[in-house]
Design goal:
single chain, 5 helices, about 35% helix, alpha+beta
Length: about 230
């Protein structure tokens, strides 16, 4: 069986790794989940395990050198046009890096996609390496952690649970919030999308949750007024 056929079968059978209608909706990200949040316990279990692994890894790593001079955070006295050029250049390179990562992880998924089977298990990053692969929620961690390791902020990069509107199939992707109202989507397996589109550019899917090792948010759907 080809990878495409096997992957399509896994999409049909499993919750997490799966398009095509997109109604007139916008989304308000980072809303507090309800007390009885159905996803809360699963997210909390993964958070605790992931934080423990990261803490153990960090304790073994050498302490990084403290930046100085231009990186010290002091206010710049550069002219505004140079600040603008700098900001634009930085954003263009961040986008290029993120797009390159999206292409890379989708190629890796062709070799390292491993379906969970009847019981859905959210792996940690280390577990994904130890098993030499995983389904979408394990492979997505490579994107999430690498972006954070490369300097993307904790308030920019989040794991996200999305669902397909026509059959409520769930899937795990990475959101990069360069725009707080319309994040870039990096899909580790390509089941939802290829490349790196904005969430508003992906038909037939809707965001449900955004979270990290330390946070857990709902996404609130808001109908857009018709013109």
């Amino acid at each position: 069986m080809t990878f495409a056929a096997a992957f399509g079968l896994a999409v049909c059978l499993g919750w997490g790794c799966a398009g095509a209608f997109n109604g007139p909706f916008a989304y308000r990200y980072f809303t507090e989940p309800p007390v009885d949040d159905a996803w809360g316990p699963k997210i909390e279990v993964w958070q605790a395990r992931e934080r423990a692994e990261r803490h153990a890894s960090d304790s073994e790593a050498p302490t990084p050198a403290v930046a100085s001079g231009a990186d010290s955070g002091a206010a710049s006295d550069r002219p505004s046009d140079l600040r603008f050029k700098y900001t634009q250049f930085r954003q263009e390179n961040k986008r290029a890096l993120a797009r390159e990562l999206a292409d890379w992880i989708q190629k890796q998924a062709q070799q390292h996609y491993i379906a969970d089977g009847p019981i859905d298990h959210w792996a940690t990053l280390e577990e994904t390496f130890q098993t030499n692969g995983d389904d979408c929620d394990g492979l997505e961690l490579l994107v999430y952690h690498l972006l954070r390791d490369l300097g993307f902020g904790e308030d920019e990069v989040f794991r996200a649970i999305v669902y397909r509107l026509r059959d409520n199939q769930h899937h795990m992707v990475t959101f990069w919030f360069e725009d707080a109202n319309d994040p870039w989507v990096i899909d580790p397996t390509g089941a939802m999308t290829s490349g790196m589109p904005r969430m508003s550019e992906v038909p037939g899917w809707a965001p449900l949750k955004v979270f990290s090792e330390n946070s857990n948010y709902d996404v609130e759907q808001q109908r857009v007024a018709q013109q």
